[in-house]
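Why does residue order matter? Because the sequence determines the fold. Keep that principle in mind as you read this record.
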Amino acid sequence: MMTTRPMTARLDQPREIRRTLLPRIHYDPDSFGRLSERIARFLGTGRFIVYMTVFVTVWLGWNVFAPPFLRFDPYPFIFLTLMLSLQASYAAPLILLAQNRQDDRDRVQYEQDRTRSDRSIADTEYLTREIAGLRIALSEVVTRDFLRSELQQIIKEQDAKEHLP
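Structure:
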């Protein structure tokens, strides 16, 4: 009697090739993220607002003042509403994707800053201990000025002894 074991992925054997009806689309997430950031940056500029204002003004002007047989979106401008909704439906996810990427960069920068700050604090504490150790060591070492003053005092004492009768 054979027992069946559940199939587990083995690293020493190649995987089976899966056949699907849909083609596999390969894209670079980083390239797509950079593109979305560029678009999101453009959407946040005054230039974009001016372009959109000119676009909507031309659209409305054409569909109000053009001869009736050339108008393609008569008043309530349903097609314009559809176009602006489509633009907004693409803009919102692109802006969110760009914000997520910026959050990831900020998080990495924060971690690097914190690591750098911790290292700086540790270095400062080390240098403080070293300076304290040097001060203690220097208090036990004879300095040049102290040695000169002591030698001058001894010479004065010797001179005073020699001049005594």
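Residues 47 and 133 are 63 Å apart (CA to CA).
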